[in-house]
Amino acid sequence: MIVDFLRTHRHLYSIERMCRVLNEHEYAISPATFYRFQARGFGPTPAELDEAYTAHRLFELWRANRRVYGRRKLWKAAHRAGWNIGRDQVQRLMNILGIAGVL
Questions:
Q1: What is residue 42's DSSP assignment?
Q2: CA distances (Å), 8 to each of 19, 39, 51, 53, 62, in order?
Q3: Cβ contacts of 3-8, under 8 Å, gap ≥ 24
Q4: Do 87 and 71 contact (CB within 8 A), yes or no?
Q5: CA-CA distance, 4 to 29, in Å (whole number)?
Q6: What residue spans define the domains of the chain?
Q7: What is this structure's pTM?
Q8: Which of 21, 24, 54, 95 is deepest in the core (most CB within 10 A)?
Q9: pLDDT in tens, 34-84
């Protein structure tokens, strides 16, 4: 979000100056952070996209099973569907999605 602000306003002020002002107001960012984002592109990384797609598929699988599956059953259902996903990854994505099994 801050990187987007810097990118939008870099034609008005230097990146270093904007970072210095932001640091004075407790938004700690270094110019190196901006340049690293610029070098890799401003969109999500392939790993972030893969995780988002996996989370979406996991949510759809949870919803298809009447929203009652917890981590263990959801992990087994994913393996039956042919996915290569670990139990801990299922739990982490469930936490991110805010979903849980019914006790």
A1: S
A2: 13, 16, 28, 28, 39
A3: 3/29, 3/33, 3/34, 3/37, 3/42, 4/42, 6/34, 7/34, 7/38, 7/42
A4: yes
A5: 12
A6: 2-40, 46-97
A7: 0.65
A8: 54
A9: 999 888 887 788 899 999 999 999 999 999 999 999 999 999 999 999 999
